[in-house]
Amino acid sequence: MTVELETLVEQDFDLVFGRVAVKRGLLTQAQVEMCVREQDRAAANGAPPPIGQVAVRLGLLDAAQAASVRGAQRYGALRIEDRLFGNLACRNAFVTREQVEDALLEQARCYRRGAARVPRVAELMIAGGLLTTQEAEAVLRAQARLFEETVCATRPSAARRSDGSPMVVRNYERFAVRDAEALCRWGWRVLLVGREGVACRVVDLSEGGAQLEAATAGRRGQWVRLQLWVPAYDRTLPLWGRIRWARPVDGRRRMGIRFVAVRGAARRVLASLAGSPELRAAGSSPFRGLEPSRA
Prior knowledge:
- The chain contains nine helices and six strands, in the order ααααααααββββββα.
- It is an alpha+beta fold.
- Strands 1-2-3-6-5-4 form a six-stranded antiparallel β-barrel.
- The longest helix is centred in the N-terminal third of the chain and has 29 residues, at 63-91.
- The two termini are 25 Å apart.
């Protein structure tokens, strides 16, 4: 179970895109490597595009094929998380192994039929009367704790003040990015894949974290899953983080987020933003106007 969680947290989304495209016969390994080299050249100029975008630009994939690969990526992450959910539900004797496999099979059928939204195993079990909402939430909270243990197992202990509270040590310079926004979920809901979440304004950003503002906020210590959008790149960056502080400011809530397990394209984009004020350009966010939901 720990190995699966490490796979989920540490995956490089561009790398996974290439693997899925090769497995589906849409790209060869040589073509993926060509895309990576092109991506590296673009990164030298401060603007590394997603590998799928590179493949389309080079004429190796069309837009529909690239979208199908991204969909398969999301489905793969969903399956890892839902199998973990099923394992924990079995361990707590809420359901049987056969019931978990039946739910996973139904989920796979929905995906193969091209359903607009693939249901989660928890949803299928609740709808089938196998789990109560309270039992499902208990399993998700246990899953979030397991995730936290997995991510923190190799991280050094944080420095602390004399009163025992964590000391925030800034290793990176902060900067403002005009019109940058993020879609966030925190608490045990970080393990639910999808676009549901709270739309946040990015007050400032660094290679190691972000300050976000929204109508509501999580609590210090909670895990956060966010999709960061920066106008210069016209793409969303999937990131994980932890809330270091949260407080009210002018009738809204602000949170300080420290990123964890930043890899691949996300690391390259954050580094290029830090080094290039020109990239912090204005733009229109795809999340703007989204009504905040409870996280």
